[in-house]
Structure formats: structure tokens, C-alpha cells
Amino acid sequence: AKDYCVLGIESSCDETGVALVQVTDQRLPVLLAHALYSQIEMHQAYGGVVPELASRDHIRRVLPLTTEVMSASGKSLSDVDVVAFTRGPGLAGALLVGAGVACALGAALGKPVLGVHHLEGHLLSPFLSNDPPEFPFVALLVSGGHTQLMRVDGVGCYQVLGETIDDAAGEAFDKSAKLLGLGYPGGSALSELAEMGNSAAYKLPRPLLHSGDLDFSFAGLKTAVMVQAKKCAMAQGCAVEALPHVVLADLASSTQAAIVEVLVKKSLAALMRTQLKRLVVAGGVGANRDLRAQLNAECKKRQVCVHYPELHLCTDNGAMIAMAAAMRLQSGIQIPSEVYAFDVKPR
Ligand code: KG4
Ligand code: ZN
């Protein structure tokens, strides 16, 4: 088979991402160029993502980003052989922008279009790193919307071992950060503050830690953080956001420790259960330094290899969508050749 190029478009939430990967016969697909625009600043004023604004901004960004990717890659649109886009899950209006543009490009170029599952993008994103994993592996998928442990035997061979029954890990970070006055999305701000605090300062619950299964629950933790923060505020006679920096840092550190401990212990349990010696961590929370440090240490003890996406590819991006499509194509899936009546799957 000859080499071919896959253009990937991501627009499921608040980042517009476009990327071009090249697929060759034997090796892993290669990332030629990618471009990303984050809307986070725009949504910050509202304390969360405003779907309507997100859709409108994707429309503004997606074509300029595509132009940027094409010129950075030294290719032209006529070199694109397949157009991939995020089909879901995500915000319906936001997804429709990527789907619409991908299908229009496909129609204009006379090339097939492929919808990709957003989580498969995250899952396969470590294959873009300098230290790509080999199948099979256990995957810990921790993003703002999802928390899952999976057994992955190959492209398209995914078995869910456990997942959250309520909030996602990233949601737990974000909601705790918000109530500590750290803005939105506060995951990375909370983790930075946590590094200055004492993780044993407050006793917070580790939900489902001993449940014997591989499921997660983070909704109760968020409530416990709120109760603890209010107690501290009452003792100091101030509002939560006005708490002294050291107290906030201790709260942040204790919160992070609770989330990370559950994620680490359940990942180790999944490795035990599957008897696999390889762990892949993907999704925005995979950027968390404390999580990485603890997983690295625990896995080293057990002779388990851990793989991460590169830091800048942990959160949403176009590269992972192009990569997932490319790996699917390499694994032999067929794309229907008729004109794509495009749709999205928000859930
Ligand atoms: O994968 P992602 O970009 O979005 C979804 O598909 O949901 O992940 C975003 C999530 C947010 O909840 C964000 O707060 C969290 O990842 N996040 C972090 C860190 N960086 C991003 N959480 C903890 N520590 C970090 N360093
Ligand atoms: Zn994501």
C-alpha cells in the first residue's frame, strides 16, 4: 500500500484542533503538523464552557488552523487522502462544526470522511510519543468528562474494566478548584497550588477505594472538600476564597492526594486482575505531576511499563483524532464510500 495522509479535526468541547498524519505501510503513523486553539480564556468569565460560544468560536478557528497545518506540513489539501473528525462524545453544536467542515472538505476533495470516537483519540494518543506502547495494555483514561479503566488488546479491541459512576476525575479537580476560588478549568491550578501544601492536612474520603471492583466515584469527594473548606473559612472568619494561601494549599494538596490515591490503587488493581505489565495513561488529568510520579514509582516496583502522551497532547487536540483514524485505517477498517450524511454522537 502507498503512503497516505489523514487530516484530523477535533471540536468536541473548548479546543479546536487540526492535524495531519502520514500513514506508511509498516511503522506507526507519523505526525506531520498540528495546530490548536484553546477557548479556555473566553469561557473563564462564565466559570465554565458556554456551548453556544464554543460552537461559534470553532467556526472562527477551524479553517485558519487547517491552513496553518497544511503550510506547516509542507503539504497541500490535494495531498489529503482521508478526513477524520471527532464524532462524539461532546457538545452537539461544537461537534457539528468539525463534522460539517470535515464532510465539506471530503466532498470538495472527493475523499472519504471518517468519524472518530473522542475517547479512542485520547486512548491512542500515547502512540504519538517517542516511547509508544505495545499491545496489550491497561489504559487509565482520565479526562474532564470520563474516567475509565480499559483492557486494550489492539486497535478497536477495547474492554471496559471499570468506570466512574458519577463525576469524572477531571471534574473532581475542576469542581474542587472552583470552590477554592481557583477559576475554571482549575485542574492544573489546583495541582500547582497542591505542590505547596501538605497532603495530610485534611482527611478526605477515598470513594470506592475498597469496593473490590474497578469503578470510581468522585461526587462525594467534591462535597467533602466543600464541607472542609467551609469549616476552615468559619474558623478563620472569612470566605473560602479569602482563606490564607497556606490553608488553600493544604486543601488543594489533600484533595489531589485523595483523587490520585484512588486512581493509582485502581490502576494497580486493574494490572493485577489482567496480569498485564503495561499501563497507558491518557486524558487531561494524565498531565498531573503527582499522578505521574506515583504511578511511575508503583509501576517500577512491579516491573510495569507506564506510557503517557506527551504533555501537550494530554488535553484535547487534533493530533490524537488524526492518529486514531490513521491507526484504524492501518488496522484494515473500510470507510463507506458513499457521501457521508454527517451526524454526531454527543453522548
Ligand atoms: O482530556 P481533556 O482535555 O478534556 C476532556 O476530554 O474532558 O481533559 C481536561 C481535564 C480538565 O478537567 C482539567 O482540569 C484536567 O483535565 N487537567 C488536570 C491537569 N491538567 C488538566 N487535572 C489535574 N492536573 C493537571 N495538571
Ligand atoms: Zn478529551
TrEMBL record:
Alphabetic keyword roster: Acyltransferase, Cytoplasm, Iron, Metal-binding, Transferase, tRNA processing
Listed EC numbers: 2.3.1.234
Binding site for Fe cation: 118, 122, 316
Cofactor(s) listed: Fe(2+)
UniProt cross-references to InterPro entries, sorted A to Z: ATPase_NBD (IPR043129), Gcp-like_dom (IPR000905), KAE1/TsaD (IPR017861), Peptidase_M22_CS (IPR017860), TsaD (IPR022450)
Subcellular location: Cytoplasm
Entries under Pfam families matching the protein: TsaD (PF00814)
Gene3D superfamilies, per the entry: 3.30.420.40
Residues that bind substrate: 141-145, 174, 187, 288
First-tier enzyme category under EC: transferase
Coiled coil (UniProt feature): none
Cofactor note: Binds 1 Fe(2+) ion per subunit.
Gcp-like domain segment(s): 31-322
NCBIfam families: gcp_kae1, T6A_TsaD_YgjD
Family indicated by similarity: Belongs to the KAE1 / TsaD family.
Task performed by this protein: Required for the formation of a threonylcarbamoyl group on adenosine at position 37 (t(6)A37) in tRNAs that read codons beginning with adenine. Is involved in the transfer of the threonylcarbamoyl moiety of threonylcarbamoyl-AMP (TC-AMP) to the N6 group of A37, together with TsaE and TsaB. TsaD likely plays a direct catalytic role in this reaction.
The protein's name in its UniProt record: tRNA N6-adenosine threonylcarbamoyltransferase
Species of the source: Rhodoferax lithotrophicus
Taxonomic classification: Bacteria, Pseudomonadati, Pseudomonadota, Betaproteobacteria, Burkholderiales
Originating gene: tsaD
